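A quick aside before the break. I want you to see a complete sequence-to-structure record at least once, exactly as it would be stored in a machine-readable document. Don't worry about memorizing anything.
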Amino acid sequence: MDSAQLHAPMPQAAPSAGSARGSTWAPLALVGIALLLWLASMAVFLVFPLETLPRYFARRYLVLDATSLLFIVVVNTVFLGISVYLFSRRRTSARLARDFLPRAALSLLFMLVTNLAVLSSHLIVLWTLLEVSTLCATPLVARGDAALPRTVAWRYLLYSAMSLSLTFMGFMCLTQSASLRGVDIDFAIDALGGALSPTGDGWQHLGLAFMVFGLGGKLGLAPLYGWLPETYETAPTSTSALLAAVQFNISMVAVFRILQVCRGVDLSFVAQELLVMGYLSLAVAAVKVMAVRNYKRLIAYACISSSGVIALGLSVGQTAAYGVVLYVVSNAFVKALLFLTAGRLRATYGTNDVAALSGVIRILPFSGSLFTVGIFALLGFPPFAGFLAEMLTLSGIVQAGNLMAFTLMCVMLTVIFVATGRTVFPMLWGAPEREVPTAHEPRLTTMPKLGFVAILIMLGTYTPEPFTRLLRAVAQSIGG
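That is the input. The structure line, written in tokens, reads:
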């Protein structure tokens, strides 16, 4: 077999008639429930003004405040796009058609847990739901078609258990601190702050450090990032999008909650911890991106870079807080866009290796263009929201007087930009090694991706005032 044959797009097997008839209702149910979740989240956003929040439910175990309101809108919008993508891909993927029902059921259970976690007003309940979401995602990761998906799924589960165990050790240390001071401790977010010492003792410092370090592992921050590249590469692209754009935000909510309950407490040591983790993550991402030759892994390492930027911004707080919140929101849509588009590339070429792809934008003009747009958004080009968010974060870092963080962030992002361009742009715009007819791309597959692009442009150019006020409220709650 010659090299031209090796690089030719792989034909797509159509699902069998029996499998298509047997699961027709499942794709419709998935999209229908995802649409209901999105409509419910938008209704909550429109019905409950910020001035009326917070509101507590379920014996105060659930809360609707600015943070939970923002993230239920974001995660349910992303999930609607992923559901539409799965619905459209089922028609052309025999593997997905055979396995659609369990994947849809696990995805819906995952989203139920996610929404409860975002609304949780108790840190231990939130911690528990984060672990349950991992249990739901593990069998989804195991359904990938890369090498040894079950082994990767088990490693993902073990890494998650280790990270969350560190977080639980933090809870125990805070309990010990309160016990030594003769104070009752309650991990509800509206009560925990009263049990903390403003100056802090050794146990309290250790507890907060463990909590942030453990959750940093779930965010893919160095040094606990090892699970992320192989998991994102191995999992089906829809699952990679769920992990990167949805589960990531549960962990982000948990970090925000810690910062919210610790206002008025000395957090300088936590800021230093975030600063170091941010430095390490940007350095790791820059080195790995220079060497990677796999487009799904490249997106995964870019996710580590994004986590590093977030950690640096959170270490500064204050004026960088708004930029961090906007960056978190915009990255959810960037990651979903890139992974869903990578799914189309994988379905066509049958590989994640960059070397096997050339002239993608000629063979898959729409997906190639969307992947290009996603890369530009990921690298922080205007008019996308990432550009504005990075500028606000860098401005906050400068105002805080941390020129070392500013310099390192600029240098590492430049290295990542150059390395990404050298890897991706020949794949997209290089001359095909043989003449291949342009592939047909169903319109339904492109709808969620176009929606994500529109949101990214809107957030980067003109954000409606109600949503801007919501972003500001979240930024102020974490010290902005």
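Two observations worth writing down. Strands lie at 55-57, 62-64. The first strand starts at residue 55 and ends at 57. We'll return to this after the break.
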